[in-house]
Amino acid sequence: MGTIKSRRFPEGFLWGGAIAANQAEGAYREGGKGLSTADILPVGPDRFKIASDPSIVLDTLEGVYYPSHEAIDFYHRYREDIALFAEMGFKCFRTSIAWTRIFPNGDEETPNEEGLKFYDDLFDELLKYNIQPVVTISHYEMPLGLVKNYGGWRDRRLIDFYVRYAKTLFERYKDKVKYWMTFNEINVMAHVPFIGGGIILKEGENRNQVVYQAIHHQFVASALAVKACHEIIPDAKIGCMIAGIPTYPYSCHPNDVFEAMQRDRISLFFGDVQARGYYPSYIKRFFKENNVNIEMLPGDEEILRAHTVDYIGFSYYMSLVVSTASENAEKASGNIFGGVKNPYLKSSDWGWQIDPKGLRYLLNQFYDRYQKPLFIVENGLGAVDVVEEGDVINDDYRIQYLRDHIIEMAEAIEDGVDLIGYTTWGPIDLVSASTGEMKKRYGFIYVDKDNEGNGTLRRIKKKSFNWYKKVIESNGEEL
């Protein structure tokens, strides 16, 4: 495994880890925080049912366990956790701000000072250890008030609410935060519109019309946030964030190859608009064929064109395979994007197919297409970890997964890709976004908590903790 002699990561490369407020903070009603869309998602099979059709229940219920309500209690324990990140040598730490801590209902004129103060303290703690905060403005949550009163991102008024929120953050943290992202995995809106944008579809509605109109509102909001960030913090960088899942054809049949390209475009569309500044021609054909008529106000196209992102942030966990022949129908399990099983790859405990080479492929695809710096802001292995006697956790499978992906990152840099950083998902165990479980663990640090919310919340270092520390110390040479 040893040292890579011929491949170097750039000087100042941003090594770190990434979490989301709603998956880690807890304290869901403390400090004046309002209810968010994440706060009404329970653990287990009901979670996806409600995320897919939230009209079932738009509130919290008695006797139901909601993992985000306490999560791993990062809200009260962040100092202890950041000290551990510093021990690993983190250069940066990606987190999100809970919109409902700043604007509890989303449409207030005045922000909640207690919420703003919490993030001041959090960022100060990071900066104390020379860890750069990388901040996502909206990460899979938004004020429930905006869903109930406006219908989520289907309503154009949300652009103003979001821009007010973003400007509040830029003004407040302009001396502390130099890396921003507008929406986490914005392309997930096309697959799970409630998670991505608080959208509840009504009987008989044209799904594509509602979803792509809401996406347009997010694009305009994102571009206006880019504009505001450049004006308020000229030395900052602000990016988009995309769920990166490259698509392979199952065979070399031209239909499979074309289908793979079409499937890739469902996600690439989001990068195209935010990094190039306009709606590509292929999406216009899709709109025409699916009776989608995007209502744009005068000036929208100019806003998108004038305020493109500085970098592309993205997550990478797996690749996808598509087939147009029904006999190849063994489905890939565990992801919302569908596809069939890749016979050449192994899968994680949750059915996600492990494909390190796919990361190099995706890095090259993005860089060839956009010629903008790239930032891998999520990559990791969700697995079942066992605590052995003496608090030992041998997570060699996680080390192997990360090592293989880092090797491919180094190859992509050698290919000429401008890669600015790598934050593993989640450097500490947290609540899974897809299932709400704690059993699906990603961290270098174990958190004593189970799927039902029982446990002491004690933090325990895993074997991967010291391994990642050496990776950072050697700037990726010692793997």
UniProtKB/TrEMBL annotation:
The keyword Hydrolase applies. PROSITE patterns: GLYCOSYL_HYDROL_F1_1, GLYCOSYL_HYDROL_F1_2. GO terms for molecular function: beta-glucosidase activity. One of its GO terms (biological process) is carbohydrate catabolic process. GO terms for cellular component: cytosol. The active site is at 378 (nucleophile). Keywords: Glycosidase, Hydrolase. This is 6-phospho-beta-glucosidase. It comes from Fonticella tunisiensis.
